């Protein structure tokens, strides 16, 4: 575990840490919990269910198939990766059935890479309208995965665009303040450009060399 990084993240004001624990075991999660972490992100439903522990707060951060949504109800504090109307409609349906209101983020495909996940920018306004009409969805904000590149300016521009979208959203929905962006490679840049939630996996599990 990279204790130094964990301490740095814990003392970064205004930024919530989601520890991404995909491909790591439940006992590694418990180790992180001992260091004070409580919020964990998983990207696959099956793997999440195997490690689920109600003592912690769980976020789903990966592309989600509609047929898996029903298994998540009541277990996930935040579904960060809502990227289509079809998925939003299924979460609405299952949340209504379970009698809960499900907090979600809309994931925006901010990178120009068509293989990346997320709602394309030109479809976002429509998805937003749809989400806001659903009584069992609570929109908390936006999420993105920036381009995977050494070009810092390109990544910074993507984060800035997200910040703008987040500001616009808050003029309509003041509660929807969450802006989830930044991973091991780019979280500092993301925080400089307005992120208030970072999702970090790889770097947490690296040795801090102490
Ligand atoms: C894996 C993953 C992360 C964490 O990535 P690292 O590079 O390991 O920090 C963040 N967000 C999503 C959606 C992921 O799938």
TrEMBL record:
Cofactor(s) in the UniProt record: pyridoxal 5'-phosphate
Coiled coil stretches, renumbered: none
Keyword Transport: no
Keywords carried by this UniProt record: Pyridoxal phosphate
Organism: Faecalibaculum rodentium
Xref: Pfam families: Ala_racemase_N
The protein's role, per its UniProt record: Pyridoxal 5'-phosphate (PLP)-binding protein, which is involved in PLP homeostasis.
Modified residues (N6-(pyridoxal phosphate)lysine): 22
Family (UniProt): Belongs to the pyridoxal phosphate-binding protein YggS/PROSC family.
Xref: InterPro entries: Ala_racemase_N (IPR001608), PLP-binding_barrel (IPR029066), PyrdxlP_homeostasis (IPR011078)
Name of the molecule in the record: Pyridoxal phosphate homeostasis protein
HAMAP family with a match to the protein in the record: PLP_homeostasis
Molecular function as annotated in GO: pyridoxal phosphate binding
Residue stretches making up the Alanine racemase N-terminal domain: 12-207
